[in-house]
Amino acid sequence: MAELVYDKNGRLLFTEEMKKEYTLLMPQMLPVHFGMMARLLENEGYKVETLNTSGKSIVDAGQKYVHNDTCYPALLVIGQLIDAVQSGKYDPHKVALLITQTGGGCRASNYIHLLRKALKKAGLEFVPVVSVNLSGLEKNPGFKLTLPFIRKAVFAMMYGDIIVQTSNQVRPYEVEPGQTDRTIQQVEDRLLDGMKQGKGLSYKQMCENFKWIVQAFKDIPVQGEPKVRVGVVGEIYIKYSPLGNNNLEQFLLSEGAEPVVPGLTDFIIFKIYNRDVDVDLYGGLWLKQKLCRIGEDYVKKCQRAMIAAMEAGGFRAPGTFDDLHRLIKGYLGDGNKMGEGWLLTAEMLELIHSGTPNIVCTQPFGCLPNHIVGKGMIRKLKDDYPWSNVVAIDYDPGATKINQENRIKLMLANARALAKDEAAREAAAGHTGEGEKIPTFAGPSHRSV
Amino acid sequence: MSLRIGIDIGSTTVKVVVLDEQNKLLFRSYERHYSKTRERACETLRSIEDRFRGQDVKLVITGSAGLGVAKASGIDFVQEVYATAAAVREYYPDTDAVIELGGEDAKIIFFGGALEERMNGSCAGGTGAFIDQMATLMNVDVGELDKLSLKHEKIYPIASRCGVFAKSDIQPILNQGGRKEDVAASIFQAVVDQTVAGLTQGRELKGKIVFLGGPLHFLYGLRERFVETLHLDGEHAIFPEDGDCFAGIGAALCAGEYKVRPFEEFLKLLEESVDAKTTVDTMPPLFTDKEDYAAFLSRHNAKHPPKADIAAYSGPAWLGIDAGSTTTKMTLITADGGLLYTYYHSNQGNPVAIVLEQLKEIYKLCGSRIEIKGAAVTGYGEDLIKNAFGCDLGLVETVAHYKAAAHYDPDVDFIIDIGGQDMKCFKIRNGAVDSIMLNEACSSGCGSFIETFAKALGYDIASFSKLGLFSPHPVNLGSRCTVFMNSSVKQAQKDGASVEDISAGLSISIVKNAVYKVIRAASADDLGRHIVVQGGTFLNDAVLRAFEQELGRDVTRPTIAGLMGAFGAALSARDLHLEKSALLDAAALERFTHSAKPVTCNLCTNHCSLTVNQFDGGRRFISGNRCSRPLGKEKVEMPDLMHFKYKKLRAMEGMGEGDGSRGKIGIPFGLNMYENLPFWYTFFTKLNFEVVLSPESSRKLYLKGQRTIPSDTVCYPAKLLHGHVEALVEAGVDAIWYPCMSYNNDEGIGDNHYNCPVVAYYPELLAANVPDLKQTRFLDPYVGLWRHKDFIKRISALMEREFSIPKKETRAAARAAYEAYEVYVDVVRETGKEYIQYARTHDLPIIVMCGRPYHIDPEIDHGINDLVTSFGFVLVTEDALSYLEGYAPRKVLNQWTFQSRMYNAARYVCTQDDMQVIQLVSFGCGTDAITTDEMRDILEDGGKLYTQLKIDDISNLGAVKIRVRSLIAAIEARKAQDKGPTA
Predict the structure, then answer these.
(1) How far apart are CA A347 and CA A219, in angstroms?
(2) Which of A120, A255, A289, A372 best tests the B interface by mutation, with the highest count of B CBs <10 A?
(3) Interface predicted TM-score (ipTM) of this complex, two decimals
(4) For B728-748, what is each residue's pLDDT tens digit?
(5) Is A282 in contact with B484 (Cβ distance < 8 A)?
């Protein structure tokens, strides 16, 4: 059994020996992305498992071991990890926990510490916690993020984004229920098989892969009238994780809407860009800035390739990071970086500009940055875009699904009325020119069935 | 065209409306459903079956509880706000806004331009259910509450966020003798404030407003508050005749788009759906069978006091009174703790009358055989009762409860008391109170909470809780505050849970709330081995059982669990060993009179709401005061660094050494400006600007900007900023300076030096939400002060761009500003040293108030510092000590400058015998969810007590007093103990 080694501050380290013996448990957020990330780590020689657990015991564990005023994602992520360790499925002495750390000014940077406190409370302080971050925080001898690995991780994220974004446009219209999800499985398997053989992990190969991925979703037979599109933005965990948002996407689908969920790529660029712009705003090393820009540019290049592939396949593609950045002028400054920062508002703007003015803005109850960048900007959006239809929904262990769904239903009723008005206006005045920059296909009609 | 029927199923009522082809109302009903939604709707339809049988109708369901019914029955559903808007458009086409209050919903719909709709979020009271709760609290029905309110003379500020907050505001007012009429009107005002603050979110309520929903339909006092607050006249305030069922009418109007069916078919669909049950999240039962319960009962009933008979006993006796928040408890004991007389009753908002009546009764029973040799009082109404009846001793609840618990179990190491309103838990270590946990105002899932639910469901509390004992499947309702619980119950009802299951679920949720939210325990061992439970709520067997189940161990519940406070007080009275009690005698009671009058104290900016109690013979008692000035005594000036800093900062306005020739620059006096003002003041006066500070914070200033607050869950210090910037615009400044600051100064004591997201970016929120700011120049650039050279470079470019100021001049001003800031920091530290020296010379204890710089704002801290110093403490702040410790790794990411100071100050306090910490926490402060646990760890590891005071827009000094006095008692107990072994 691996020896427990501590650093000079008493932090339990993840050793090389542990790398061989231990299973790394990862909380779930974005099933497609995280699934691929896990496989990449396995290729690096780690034993990894993404937790797909759900249910009451997770929230219970969270409430038991985490300060209840802490934000809901912390409660769920930590609850999910501890619940897994205590589940009896694993040998608690043979697992380590993987958690991301962004290092921003928001409470989220403290998740890892809250996790350790929770482990101690649960009598599990012998379980090592491994921080995944790009800020050089908390190093571990048995877990290193090498540059080649980070590059691969970027590819995995791009694949995740293109799969999610294209499939989201097909699923509401699929003729055969479940076909889209089956296709996702097939696409993922093919990508992962390739990755195992080292394929698909260069820019060129990624572009090749994009083509057949898009084609795979394009080939799914679709039918029906265009549905009301509803954008989903918000605090990153609640926005993506079905566990966090009470299966929001599923609910929107069941209400006859088409969910539009902006991808993860912009968030990654955003986090790098924050470091870049900090140098402009406050001073700092130009070399640091230079390095950030190289990283930024590389991911931006990948993003452009993804957009091109989606457009070529006749899909509605998201705007680039720079497009989003342009939209935010007059709303928030470049320095607004905690949590999702200005990106959240920019995503709402982009949705409005691309013909999806109906938006669910999700956040954990009492989310600090979202006071400003979420709820705080809705008024101005409404002033500038009177037809925008944004509903802010809070999530926490006490909030009931019925209240949340009722509020979303109100937004949908509003959306349908707006769509009707819009149709009437268009019929009267000819075509309106809003959102011309980004192609605004409505529903499946753009693809041959 | 056919008849159209709308059924509005709300959280508490069902409304059925039938419209004919001309939109004429053929039938309407409004009935409470007591959680039997489907049954109620069916019954109403059946009652009109004769009239409409055979007709083709269109039927649509709406309402917050209607969705489930609609789904189960396959009938179409329309969202209720949407339905309401449809009805308003039909009948009042020129409406600008609708305000609709329902059982648990509050809505505003804005017309004119694009339709905008707002509903209350997951944290919101201020609705019908809230009014019901408040009426219950005051022991009147809602109609009486309404009548009372119309006779009000003054309005008390009452927290409008949620019922729990309001309760803790109202209770002290009632206990201190405030008029019911005024409280009633204040409750309605709270609802109005909640609606206006929570839902307008930056859009002004003006023009023609239609008021809808049950409460606004029936309650004239509530109408009056709305009309007055919004300055409406008869033409602009519309109260439709059928305002209580407008959503139903709207649903009927919307029905036009849906399917036609014969009336009976709809009725059949509904009836069939009654049996459809969906799954509910359930938990194991409390008791499996009767034997189980019997064994449980006999175990607990073993702990009882010795028998004593007041009719036969003669000799000395001692009286204990617990004037609690909702109930008054009294005990008369013999020397060995035998109970001669007990009393436990709801105080009905008037504890004085109850105690008077009971005292008379006791004297009658005592005759000449029994002499009362001492009387002590504890609880919320302590001061009032003590002064009214001349009790010998007043003691803080925590001490009384410990005294009582130790009587039954001398080894007790953990006490939990759940009363009607508050929950107290504390550990006992080495015979002294070691750490006190009181429920925060947001989580009082206490006794009165179950009672309110019981009443809402049509039961009395005793039979309601009994129902849950043998429930096979208690509903899991979570463990959060009342407002959330309301919705959880609503959902469970919707899913078809029985009253039994809900009753058991509520009992379990109270326990979970106590264990996880208040005590924050991970396991039973966290609490202790000898746990004594008390308080009226534990007399409820379901709660007690749930508690034992949750902890997995047996606990002690004395049979007098509900009287323990009074019992402890009586024991304390006994231990005074008095020859004669000062308690009013029987003759004096005959002359006793009492009246209470509310007044506002104008002796300082706190403007305390005082209650002046007049007793017979000219005796007077004033409550609600923070300091001794309204009592006619000179305010004792104890060294108080919060005062010192505040005065120092407030003086930083005007032209300083400059000539003001560049115009007036406005600086909002809030949030991080409490730290950065010395810098900006010097910076701008050096550049010949005149610095104009926004006025001192006040509730009025808050209300001024309230309508532009977009997020009602943000902290109060941030909310105040809206009023501050509006006042600056009004003051006619040339520009307002309020920069965004992601980073704070780097003091080298943390892992990073951020501001919290709210402090960092609030200027941008103001720019987007305060319309008045469009009238002025609002400068909110991103700046970072910690890199001096970089800052100077960037600020000089900015000042050149904005004001054409030569860079050289700005550079000099910035350098001077850095120096001025250093001077300010030094002065604070030096003054802190002086105060500590003063304390040591005069042998006074020191409180280190740990919070944010802006917590020194009297409107934010509500004068807590005055209260603390009035107890004889010298007060210093965290920033006067934080520099005395260096960097040390923490168990949390120590990344915020202000918060890092608290950790360091706490570490320093651990090295000083005469210091204790009080941490101030603003409600809604996300970063304090992290700091509070860490502060507790630091202090408890260092052998110190941990005291936390949560503060919000409303001042509730009663709760603060309990904590501060408990702290004092704990300090004294520790001192006595330290002396003990050597003596």
Answers:
(1) 29
(2) A372
(3) 0.92
(4) 999 999 999 999 999 999 999
(5) no
